[in-house]
Amino acid sequence: MATKKQIAEQAMRIIQGGNLKPDNSMDIREVMLHLDQLRDRRCRLDVLNNVKSGEYSVPDSYLVIETGTVSSGTVSLSRQTLELPYGLGLYQVGPTADLDEAYAIMPPGQRALLGGSAAMERQSKGFCWMVADVIYFKNVSDSTGVTIMYVPSSKAIAEDADYPVPPDVEAELLQELVQMFGVQQQSPHDELEDGQK
Fold first, then answer.
1. Helix (H, G, I), strand (E, B) or coil at 153
2. Distance (Å, rounded) from C-alpha 41 to C-alpha 55?
3. pTM above the 0.90 mark?
4. Which residue range is the domain that position 23 belongs to?
5. Count of CB atoms situated within 10 Å of the CB of 194
6. Dihedral of CA 82/176/31/163: which sign?
7. Which end of the chain is more exposed for a tag (fewer CB within 10 A), N or C?
């Protein structure tokens, strides 16, 4: 799996004709920012296409797994989640000790609406919901280890970390970067490699 920086550098090399020149006017930070925007948009579209076909799921390649320990009824994620339809950004939460078990994920505010109902009073079932990248738990004891599957926002992924995106989508994102930034490079070309623009 490539990193964000590797994809951005590859796009810049393609646009420059093979090698990055010292007087290159492109800023890799701009290329990575646009790559983040393209990945998040594509992830959202892939999820919407799955939902249209009746499958409420996220393609596996967009997901990351993180572990944590419940403390004061909460776990904070290390990265911001991507806002996806039907709350699919937070994909699955369950106890680390039993990976066959998963807690019921509910939208924020539903606990108040369901309070007093038989479903919420069932002590054997764990519930969770997320607000601002903090996961809150009901019927889950403190010190319980949890495994969390979620879709991180692209801007929360470090430039040298694996970039969670399907391989075929990676190629499409690269092509879109080349198209976007290649247009900007069609200005008169500086043939002299003197470090000046």
1. coil
2. 19
3. no
4. 4-54+154-184
5. 9
6. positive
7. C
136 & 162 share domain: no
The verdict on residue 130 lying in a domain is yes
**How many angstroms separate the Cα of 94 from the Cα of each of 42, 98, 164?**
27, 7, 21
Torsion of CA 158, 159, 165, 168, to 10 degrees: 180
Same domain assignment for residues 101 and 145: yes
* Tens place of pLDDT per residue across the chain (197 aa): 789 999 998 888 888 777 666 666 678 889 999 999 999 999 999 999 999 999 999 999 999 999 999 999 999 999 999 999 988 999 999 999 888 889 989 888 666 556 666 655 666 688 899 998 899 998 899 999 999 999 999 999 999 999 999 988 999 999 998 888 876 555 555 556 666 65
Residues 74 and 145 in one domain: yes
Instruction: Give the other-Cβ count within 10 Å of 141's Cβ.
Output: 10
C-beta of residue 74 within 8 angstroms of C-beta of residue 136: yes
**CA–CA distance, 4 with 36 (Å, rounded to integer):** 8
